Structures are given as structure tokens and as C-alpha cells.
């Protein structure tokens, strides 16, 4: 009887591999969501058809694809290159993240100059105001990333490398959540509503919520759960 109890306790202590594999497969589906949402917006925008078309195109490319892929690269379950050395992941993260920032700045420039051409006022909607804030905080977050990479810089040296990484990850997840809120507002903009229907709008919002949830869950798993191993 005692041996049976011990055996049952051991089975409970060892995680079910099949459950872990299923969870990994589900989490990897986020890449399909990211690619699908990006392609949808790009297809609707028809890049090159007008100056405005580059705004949704570059924003979708930057936030829905490049940035999420840069973040998920470090996830044990969601990463498509989980077995690659961390140094390589860091390098690829920088490449994708820098590309995302460039795309965001390009998308911002496109809508800014497009409004100038038609003599329209800037930042008259929640989407526009939050969009400006999003671009600013993403640039600041990228500068913080420089401190993580070069921890001996004056300001960065005030914290330990582990603390810098944790701060960068937590701020990054909040910035991406902020970005997804801006995206959701964009899905109810005049342009998107005119070119889609309520089902596409709802599906796009759900997709953005899914992306932000995966990112926040990844950061919490990496830094939140490890602080309380006994729980």
C-alpha cells in the first residue's frame, strides 16, 4: 500500500509529457495567427496603391509579425528555434526588433504625411493619440534593450544584468499590450470598417488579444512563477 502511494506521488510530481506537447503545439499556433493577421491587413491595404496604404501595411508588419516573433523567440514552448543557442536568439531578436521599429516609424511617417497632403488634423482620434504614444514607447523600449545588451553603460550599470533583463521583459510585454490596444482601435477605424465586416473586425480583435496574452503569459512564466517555486 505504501509503495503504491509513493508511486502515485511520483506520477503526480512528473509532468505529463503528452500534455506538455499539446500545450506547445497550441502555443506555436500563435505564429499562424500572427502571419494570418498581418497578411489580412496587407491584403486589404494593397501596399503601393496610395501613400496611406503604407500605414496599415507597415504597422501590421511591425506589430503583428516582426515584434511578436522577436519576443516569442525566447519562449521554450512558442519559439520556432528553441534549440538554437541563446546568443543567436539575442542577435535575431535585435534584427527583428530593429526592423519592427523601422516599420513602425515608416507607418507613422506615411499617415503623418498623408494627413498633411489632405490638410487633415493630426491625432484627433483615440487610435491616433495612442498610436503616437505607442511609437514613442517602442523607441524608448528599444533604447532600454541597448542597456541590456551593453550592461556596462552608465545608466544600465546601476542594475544587475538579471534585473535589466527582467525589467526589459516586463516593460516589453506592457509595451506590446499597449500596441495591441492601438491595433484593436485601428480595427474599428473608418478605413478598416469600410473594407471589412463585423466578423472580420471581431476576429482581428480576438487575434490581437491572443497575441498580447501569449506575450504576457510568456513573461509571467519566465519571471513571475520562478520567484515562487514553492507555490
Low-confidence stretches: 9-14
Strand content: under 5%
Question: SSE string, helix = H, strand = E?
Answer: HHHHHHHHH
The CATH architecture can be named as Up-down Bundle
**Count of distinct strands:** 0
Cofactor: heme b
Membrane topology: Multi-pass membrane protein
Organism: Stylophora pistillata
Transmembrane segments: 25-45, 51-74, 94-113, 125-150, 171-192, 198-221
Structure description:
Keywords: Electron transport, Heme, Iron, Membrane, Metal-binding, Transmembrane, Transmembrane helix, Transport. Its EC number is 7.2.1.3. The protein is 75% helix and 0% strand. It has one domain: Four Helix Bundle (Hemerythrin (Met), subunit A) (Up-down Bundle), CATH 1.20.120. It has 231 residues and is mainly α. The longest helix is centred in the middle third of the chain and has 32 residues, at 86-117. The chain is globular and about 50 Å long. The protein has helices at 2-13, 17-28, 30-45, 54-72, 86-117, 126-149, 161-186, 190-195, 198-224.
